[in-house]
# Entry
Amino acid sequence: MREVAFIKQNKEKWLNFEKAIFGKSLKNPDELASLYVQLVNDLSYAQTYYPKSKTILYLNNLAAKAFQKIYKTKREDTNRFVHFWKVEVPLIIYEYRRYVLYAFIIFLSFVAIGALSAANDDSFVRLVLGDGYVNSTLENIESGDPVAVYKSGSNWGSFIGITLNNLRVGMLAFVLGITGGLGTAFVMLENGIMLGSFQYFFYQEGVLWESVRGVWIHGAMEIFAIVIEGAAGLILGASILFPKTYSRLISFKTGVKNGIKILISTFPFTIAAGFLEGYVTRYSNTMPNWLSVGIILFTLSLISYYYLVYPFIVNRKRKQAYAII
# Structure
């Protein structure tokens, strides 16, 4: 069968299924499961006979949404909160994994630009970080405590102030995705260039290790979360620019909904990073290397696993469920 005929034959069924998923016109999970089986069969057929077709992307997206909806109706998944973190967010991350990759590429590119600019222009670090910060840090380096700036203020005050600021940056990175992703890219540019020049500054002063073992105690989760929030902004931008087979309005609503869920998923990591910066980083120069390195590796492994490994595990379980439903 030619692809055009295949689409024409099944178009009405797919549109009804789409309404069931996005419009909530079907409340009976058994009815939804029955349609889901037909959809999976159509997807398998398309993968076999039209391997390079965009129809596969469309059907795969519908299948993913259907799985989430069916899975949520299972009796054992009555805890909506647990389901959100355990299944819903990982599946969304898997679906938009390309945007997570794009966000990392964009952010790391800006970090490299920041470091290279600082290496080739002596005034660049002061331009980015400000004279006040640079001068005070140079004084701290002279006194033997390069990251003394993190010791200023009370533990509680630092925790609250830092956390609120990081939450603001994350929400800004997402909301500015409405500019087609340009605003999100600008937020990542600001933070990436700042990070690159910041780290090169410490390298230039011969205290890179001291800065790493201190700053990255909280920075591992803080920076990683900013990248994920940037990915959420890119998803929002792409939903406007590239609606694919959906209407632009439906695509935008889907992008907003999924982007907000990804954004919310970063909040616990951002709060944890603020706690570490307010209560732990200030003691980095007095704690043994194994402890500071251990905290860095643990926090980095935790957030990396949730966003880079766990989504593939959940998706594999979803595929296994194809044969069950």
